Amino acid sequence: MSDRRGVLVVVALLLCVAVGVAAIVWRSQGVAPIATPAEDGAETASANVAPAPALELQRRAALGLQRDRPWCEAKAAWQKLLDQLTSDTSQQDLRAEAERNLQLMENLCHPPTPPLAEISNPDGFPKQKPPEVPQDELVRFYPVGRKVRSLAHFEVEGTGNNRKWMFQQDARFVYLHRIPVETRVTKNTGMTVVFQQDYGQVEQLRADCKEELHLEWPDSPILDAVWRELEAQVLNHVPIYVAVKRVAAIVDTVDPNLRRSLTWFKDQLERSGYKLIDDQFEIVAQVDRLAGLQLEFEYVSGLGVTKVAVLKGQTFDPDDLERLALNSSLLMDYFLDRDESVKPGEDFKVTTAEIGSIVNPGYDVEVGGELMLRKQDDARLADESVHRLEVVGGELRAVADDGRLQRTGTLKPQNGYILYSPDKLLVRRAEASWKANIDWVSTDHLLFGTEVHGDVDVKTLYEADVVP
After folding, report:
1. Sequence-ordered alpha helix ranges (H) in 31-158
2. pTM summary value
């Protein structure tokens, strides 16, 4: 009897060794890891039920492809499974597993391009070349030393749900992207202009709760307060985010820049009339990749931006640098100067290549399309006379493409205006409301993964001024 037991023990040990060796060989061949529902602390919701046989067969087929290493085929299999789970709330674990494995396969099917500090194209990046600018006008609008500070707000309000949020049911949300930029002209030959842009604390903010939620617009310029905060900062952050489920916890946020962002956002919500009761509001802040970045753009008349270089801060994928070039609208003030060519009451079109800074959803999103503007009688802004241009039509398209997946959305203007200063040769303020979807949001976006009910309300605000 003892001999028989000894034989069984030896056989068991040999089987363990064989399994271990097989696992080592399998891993040494470069097989991708496989995400399961137990990873990342995934919660098992009470609504989860066992997958239907057809779904389980698809899951096993996708896993088989993943183990055999045809990455792109495995990616397609996970995407097909995920498409069938879009509206099935009873399969949260299976959906989470499919999402994680899809992301793994995307990275293996299309390896990311190494980040770069500079890209150039002698023919220019815009798909449609801008018109040439007379040399004397280019020098008049953009003399060497001219410095402009601008702040762009991109706000989204809507109803939706996200399994990463505090609320496990539908919630109201408000999202805000703030982009402070200082733009300086360092060279102007009459044909080529070199611009240097310094980004301040670019940040994303989001709040969600169970009640109606919206932000009130600021009534007065906010540039001074924002820039006083930023001038003493050294901003070169890796993007991180902080979620605060208890408002009282804001003061305990370690990163001073995120703490300042959360405090400012809390004040804006309270200013809008909300009592931020603990456990009824979730507030999230994230410092964007653009924070602390210093870029140099070379603009050639008739070609547009021909070179983008990172002088300080993080490097970017070539596609992201190209989108920064396409969205820069460095000559926006020139293209909106319609002092003599357009009379009050007349309409004219502008493209996003000309006015993209006014509507800026993020560095990884390309905005295309055009707007119809109508020139109105002059107005007053503080102590200066400005031209008022009403937004009366058009449509914009937002496209995010990371080389693996393309996401598109549309923004349709409801109303809006642009105030242009002929004395400062500058767009001083622009404000607009839009109906939109958010299908274009990327993985770096605080709304990523949100299932939104219907269109969302988008508000954009842009302010700028010339500074010494």
Report:
1. 53-68, 71-84, 92-109, 135-141
2. 0.72
